[in-house]
Design a protein that fits this description.
Layout: E1 2-6, E2 11-15, H1 21-30, H2 45-50, H3 58-61, H4 65-73, H5 90-102, H6 117-121, H7 127-139, H8 142-148
Antiparallel strand pairs: 1-2
Helix pairs in contact: 4-5
């Protein structure tokens, strides 16, 4: 299972996918590290060769909301031209900005807001959940929300 983000609906889910050839080779390399061992692939050679050569980089298949928030906190404003190792889709970046703006984490100029944005950076959770945690403080239900989040 691999995390996959759909920017159209704004939802991340775990999707069952076949391993890539690179992942398969990496797993085979683990056999025999601690004790003598063997690795058996339970597929034909033809099926193995039909597998994707590499796994799609996580940057291209997960939400960019947390990444954009962190880059903003580091003072990087030109995120569209940031030299990512694997460039995320433009749609994913746009969706990340839309989500952060709707959460009031960034203003209309794309700067972090004092009230939410700066405080969100300090929480090691996805920004949407961070806003829920922050709003629970003013609503007096922090213990209940901590249980849920």
């Amino acid at each position: 299972k691999l995390p996959h983000y759909d920017p159209d609906i704004g939802r991340e889910s775990l999707v069952v996918q076949p391993v890539s050839r690179a992942q398969s080779r990496q797993r085979a390399g683990r056999a025999g590290r601690v004790k003598p061992g063997k690795c058996f692939r339970l597929c034909t050679e033809g099926s193995f060769l039909k597998l994707a050569k590499q796994t799609v980089p996580e940057m291209k298949r997960t939400s960019m909301t947390w990444t954009v928030l962190q880059l903003k906190a580091l003072g990087i404003d030109d995120i569209a031209n940031f030299p990512f190792l694997s460039n995320p889709s433009a749609q994913s970046l746009i969706r990340a900005f839309e989500i952060l703006y709707s959460l009031n984490a960034i203003d209309s100029a794309g700067r972090l807001t004092e009230e939410i944005g700066i405080r969100l950076i300090q929480l090691p959770v996805e920004p949407r959940l961070g806003v829920v945690l922050l709003s629970s403080l003013s609503n007096g239900c922090s213990e209940e929300i901590l249980t849920i989040v």
